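lol forgot to send this yesterday, sorry. struct tokens for the thing we talked abt
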């Protein structure tokens, strides 16, 4: 596998606490630091005060963004934050799906960073993004507490190509993001993900399944919808869609899910699908 080398200017790896073990460090990113506090990154994502669009302008939060912020407000723990890695992701790790140590991995919709930190602990070069500033704050705190190096950014998943430059990542992971998107945002997301992952790279998407009964949770997703979204014109090939489970803090516990395995096609995504 040819490994990409992301270049991130807006933020940087979370720094471990003083004296903490630093098991995996990679001389990969040049990170601007605040002059008054070198331990903190500079840039528009550093304090959660700005969200970046394709044009680099600050944008007001959307209703969906505000909903995610509310879910984490006042110490809240959303139902999708289970405090451990999803079993389906652990199986991917055991199968070597994320490649050898040093692989550049993007965790889209990372929440408090459990999967990003799992992969960072295995020596991968990980960037986690989420629109919820409080979730990112907790992810950075967890990284420092565990002595792990990872990068966490407040960023819109519909603009992933701006995170570290086009084609910067070998693998992308999405646990619980795709199923909250509207039909239009699904199309934009497929193109956004294609902009972030190099040709020949891979993506894994774990989402709610249409096998779940209605009455609770996000919208259901069918295999057909996954294939329709991640089609060739969007820059993707769907290699497999497997029945899986998503563990949750809902009263029902685990729910039915799909695990989609995608490969990034050579060439660029159709701009009309953005």
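and heres what i got for the seq, position by position
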């Amino acid at each position: 596998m040819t490994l990409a080398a992301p270049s991130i200017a807006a933020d940087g790896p979370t720094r471990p606490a003083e004296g903490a073990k630093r098991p995996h460090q990679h001389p990969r990113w040049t990170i601007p630091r605040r002059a008054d506090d070198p331990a903190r990154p500079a840039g528009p994502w550093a304090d959660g005060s700005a969200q970046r669009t394709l044009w680099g302008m600050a944008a007001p939060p959307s209703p969906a963004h505000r909903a995610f912020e509310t879910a984490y407000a006042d110490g809240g723990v959303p139902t999708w934050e289970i405090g451990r890695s999803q079993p389906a992701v652990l199986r991917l790790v055991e199968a070597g799906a994320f490649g050898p140590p040093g692989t550049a991995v993007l965790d889209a919709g990372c929440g408090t960073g459990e999967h990003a930190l799992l992969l960072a602990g295995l020596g991968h070069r990980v960037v986690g993004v989420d629109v919820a500033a409080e979730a990112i704050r907790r992810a950075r705190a967890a990284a420092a507490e565990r002595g792990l190096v990872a990068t966490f950014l407040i960023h819109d998943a519909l603009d992933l190509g701006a995170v570290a430059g086009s084609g910067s990542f070998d693998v992308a992971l999405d646990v619980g993001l795709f199923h909250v998107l509207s039909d239009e945002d699904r199309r934009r997301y497929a193109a956004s993900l294609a902009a972030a992952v190099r040709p020949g790279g891979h993506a894994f998407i774990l989402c709610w399944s249409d096998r779940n009964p209605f009455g609770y949770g996000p919208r259901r997703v069918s295999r057909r919808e996954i294939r329709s979204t991640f089609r060739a014109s969007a820059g993707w090939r769907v290699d497999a869609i497997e029945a899986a489970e998503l563990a949750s803090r809902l009263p029902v516990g685990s729910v039915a899910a799909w695990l989609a395995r995608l490969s990034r096609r050579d060439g660029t995504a159709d701009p009309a699908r953005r």
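The two ends are 28 Å apart (CA to CA). anyway ping me if u want another try
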